[in-house]
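step=encode ok
step=design start
structure_in=
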């Protein structure tokens, strides 16, 4: 197990919108909320988790490590840039509205940092949605838009492999929020498969004591996803069919907490 407290750096690749922005301030606090609730459910004291947020997008002209007040119920603060790998035990890469296959300087830098973290061997890496795709790219897999630009949205079923069942409570299928049309197209060499869906064959990747990723969003809530669906319909990103299907499932039971507990077990196991 990592030294106490467990030092988790959340690399924030986007910020929430609307009401979620007001409530949480930042996606760092959305994940902190999930991890704290998962710690409660796993009988891990919250003070055993030292969680910090890092803005890895808006770095032009910013001082490395400068603190930024994000507000919200958590009064969340985050820093600009990247943590030192020597000063953290784990890195969690969040979701994002951006494309993981783009070559914007900040995206390339995030991919390079992820490669360094994986190669370093001690620090454990969690990737969620966009973060899952960044890890896939760092490991050499193809990341691109789905064929035909098909979306997965709202609560969806992910069929689990045997390893996925082992990690996520023995369930044959996970119910998890989705919000993506980009994919990791195949499993990189040396990675264990965790799950798949009709739209996305690579729903999760695992390297023991090094990497765990999911394409879905365990941190999302019904309120966050409903607001995203409504906003993207208003922006003409979603047509009525995608919106209505998503809203019909948004209140369904989901396994976000189960995935959060699996993340903590991954971070603390020897």
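sequence_out=
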């Amino acid at each position: 197990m990592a030294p106490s407290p467990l030092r988790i750096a959340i690399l924030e690749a986007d910020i929430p919108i609307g009401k979620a922005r007001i409530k949480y301030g930042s996606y760092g606090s959305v994940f902190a909320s999930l991890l704290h609730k998962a710690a409660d459910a796993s009988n891990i004291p919250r003070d055993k988790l030292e969680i910090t947020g890092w803005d890895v997008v808006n770095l032009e002209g910013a001082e490395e490590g400068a603190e930024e007040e994000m507000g919200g119920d958590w009064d969340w603060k985050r820093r600009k840039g990247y943590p030192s790998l020597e000063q953290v035990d784990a890195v969690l890469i969040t979701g994002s509205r951006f494309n993981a296959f783009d070559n914007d300087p900040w995206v390339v830098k995030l991919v390079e940092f992820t490669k360094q973290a994986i190669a370093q061997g001690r620090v454990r890496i969690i990737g969620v949605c966009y973060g899952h795709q960044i890890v896939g790219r760092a490991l050499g897999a193809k990341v691109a838009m789905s064929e035909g630009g098909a979306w997965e949205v709202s609560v969806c079923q992910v069929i689990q492999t045997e390893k996925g069942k082992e990690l996520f409570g023995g369930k044959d299928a996970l119910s998890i929020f989705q919000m993506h049309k980009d994919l990791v197209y195949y499993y990189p060499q040396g990675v264990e498969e965790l799950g798949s869906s009709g739209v996305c064959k690579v729903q999760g990747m695992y390297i023991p004591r090094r990497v765990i990723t999911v394409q879905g969003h365990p941190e999302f809530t019904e309120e966050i996803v409903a607001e995203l669906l409504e906003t993207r319909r208003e922006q003409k990103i979603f047509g009525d069919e995608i919106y209505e299907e998503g809203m019909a499932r948004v209140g369904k039971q989901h396994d976000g907490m189960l995935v959060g507990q699996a993340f903590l077990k991954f971070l603390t196991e020897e």
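step=design ok
step=annotate ok -> The CA atoms of residues 57 and 234 lie 25 Å apart.
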